[in-house]
Structure prediction request, 1015 residues.
Amino acid sequence: MTRLPAPFGTRIDRTRPVSFRFEGRRVQGYAGDTIASALMADGQMMLSRSFKYHRPRGAFGLAGAEANTLVQVGAEPNVQADLREVAEGMEVTAQNVAGSLAFDRDAAIGLFARFLPVGFYYRTFMGPTRQAWLRFWEPRIRAKAGLGRVDTGARFPHGDKAHLHCDVLVVGGGPAGLAAASEAARGGADVILCDAGPEPGGSLCHAPQGAASAPEGVRLMTRTACTGWFADNWLSLVQGGTLWRVRARQVIFAVGGIEQPAVFRNNDLPGIISAGAVRRLIRLHGVAPGRRAVVLAGTPEGLDAAEDLAAAGIAIAALVVPRPLPGHEGRIAALGCPVIAGRIEEASGRARVARVRVAGSWVDCDCVAVSVGQAPAWQLPCQAGAVLGHDTASERFVLRLDRPGLHLAGTVNGYAGHAAVVADGRRAGAAALRALGMSAAAEPAPKDIDAALSFWHQPLDPHPGGKDFVDLDEDLQVADLINAVAEGYRELELVKRFTTVGMGPSQGRHSALATARIVAEATAREVAEVGVATARPPAMPEALGTLAGHGHTPERRTALHARHLRLGAEMKPVGAWWRPYLYGRGDREALIAAEVAAVRTGVGLLDVSTLGKLEVRGADAGEFLDRIYTMSHGTQPVGRVRYCLMLNEMGAVVDDGVALRLAPDRFYVTATTGAVARVYADMAMWNAQWGLRVDVANLTGAFAGLNVTGPGARDVLARLPGDIDFSRDAFPYLSGREGVVAGVPVRAMRIGFTGELSYELHCPASHAPALWDAVMAAGEVRPYGLEASRILRLEKGHILIGQDTDALSSPDELGMGWALSSKKPFHVGKRSVEMRRRLGVTRRLAAIAFPAGTRGLGESCLVLADGVPAGHVTSVAQSPTLGHPIALAFVPAALAAPGTGIAIRARDGSTVTGTVTGHAFLDPKNTRQEG
Amino acid sequence: MKLLTCPLNGPRNIDEFQYLGPLRPDLAEGAADADWAAHLFRAENRPGPMVEWWRHTPSNTVFLAERHTLTDTILRTWLPGAKP
Prediction:
């Protein structure tokens, strides 16, 4: 055990042990441990195998920014062991191993490293035969690809989504973030402070300045990662399984820095850890990272780590100081350990670092604390428009963010000393307040005497033996990048795609800056000219379940839904609406035929509540509809119903319905269920241009509709008490009335979709059940569903918009020239219809009857002309009334005359022949519906 | 998620809106067929400020917006017929 006694380990609760298993072995940690800290306390430094060479890997930064710490937890792959807190009973296994972590058979790949240079896959795996890639190489390579194991049978929780608004969002709860949040809250702003850790404080948690807490008046969100910045300060925060969408008026990025690795031979050995990680292990988790440590103090932070190591009683075998640290000589002397001027040239070891070579001599150790400096955490700021540049004078990477509503604070803004970091946080908070129009004094940028020492510009020359990794994720060495440039990939984006540098799980956090320097050196340019690759959301891993959220399919139900269920209806979705397809159980075809027969011989009742319903009001209502639809509506008498055909500007049919004129300045218009939303939008769009005195109200959900249809419909309605006279003379075909039926206020319209005597009764939705019950009780009335409805309309040859039409169908093609008014100077699409007439009609929608017993017909069956496809079936059904199949189909115009034989390729591959008939299969003179 | 300011309803997330296309100049009466076809199908796509039709879906409010297509910034919005 390498657990240190209290007061070390401020984040763990030693009274609450937690047991879990790693690679089958039982490990004990404490509540507050992460998987990584618990394993390291148990002496387990190796956590995974590297992507390409399967080299042993351990944690480097313990900050959720590397591939080395990815483990499998149960069915969940790619869990960040340095962030995930331990839970009782967890089953943790290493990833990317063949066998086990300790004995990985694929480690043999490392023996062939010299044959697997960067880009080797562009030149290999092509032989020996033409099929070699598909048959031999690809299956084997894919079997080794990836890191974790995906269990397709596993079920993961779906996250919730929620919204937040605030004046100031501070991302990062370190010293700068706390200062910024405090300043903004004190000034009266509504502040949210989010931090990825379990408590705020950042480096304060393990620093001598002491613990931190959220400032007063600040909404604190811990264990919350900010994964993306989007337009107009819309940010995504992930907290557990919840995706918070935050709209902030001001954003302060206090996201700190990313400790960079040192580049030397075998720099990837387990036990080589960043200085900050060493401090966190000691202070937060009470873990001794080793017994004998070497500290590479390229910056003063290395001295911080050395002091913590000494305080924990860990021997410091050597303090490696690659450059003078002015002002810190006293601290170095106080450590009392061997001090070596120079740098680490090489490390050695197997499952763990065992020694390092410094200035030509080997030093035994089991832990190396690395302090090379931090790069600003650029990912989120760069998404928001920040530019990552390189300051040649101080040899540091710096961010600049000059956009309204956005601020950088602290380490990410280039500050290193604690006092300067805090002061910059306050400055950013004050700047946010001023941007919000609140009073706050402008504070000057703080001076920072520590900035000059905050980054060591380490040499990046390749080691003759290689294994000097620049990208730990992708197993890329210094020479790999130099060779890529030599191959001609001179731009950073090309180097990235050729070598895959920065494409691994850490997305360049540890490799981007070294890569930029290597490419700049190899191409004899300044680092600032090379730049870094684009940073895109998400800034850190997001579970797909968090993005998906809960499945949420909207459902719309008519006011008669319960009636249909009680009558045994088979309900199915049509778009968002749920509609009855047929009533009853058993032989579907027989049930549908019976429903059709009821309408043809008695009385049927259909719920048409899903129809679009619009009320067009205003002095120019008639003029408006004259322009929107093809028929004449301006001259439509009050109390009359007229068919509405809607075209788009290209002269294509896009919707139909009917309009009832209620008053000179008021129309009640129906539209098809699927199109009403678009019709409503188009009406608004057109009138925005025309400026007519018109208002359109969408009543689709507010009104319900019932269609009472059949030879006995009039008799049934006559039995209902009310003030509407349904007799033939008082209520002629294509007229409408407003009144009361069975105590329900209705708008009644006499129309003829089914081809039978029909009355549509529209009423406020809440009254629909009462009206339905009254109609059902008034005689032998049979409800029918959508299946029967579609057959009934087909027997009359009525088209369904969207089924019998496509995006280009013109009225002439559909045989609807009769619906185009020739008297109006304008309607939408008129000009295009005229142009298309001049071009000639090449296809027509024809009504086709087939002999009884014809089989295999279906929608989309091809129409053949001289054996080649020349059209297709759009609607087809067996007609119970006529006793044979009937269809609508697009056919060549030359074949559209009644009596012409039409060959159709049936579903079984045979060819069947039908005959073109007149427009309606049944009652072409409309005596039934108009009687 | 971008914000777009509806002249009637104020600033809303852009997913509440529908883009309807650029504002087109009126075509002269009696224009040739080819000009009518170009009017229908050749939408303007200029880099720089463009005036476009937008609709706020929940309220069915149609308005005009001036947007800089290179920077994707909304310069102003106004109701048609009103002064911009």
User: Anything to note?
Assistant: The first helix of chain B runs from residue 33 to 41. Chain B touches chain A through 21 residues (CB under 8 Å).
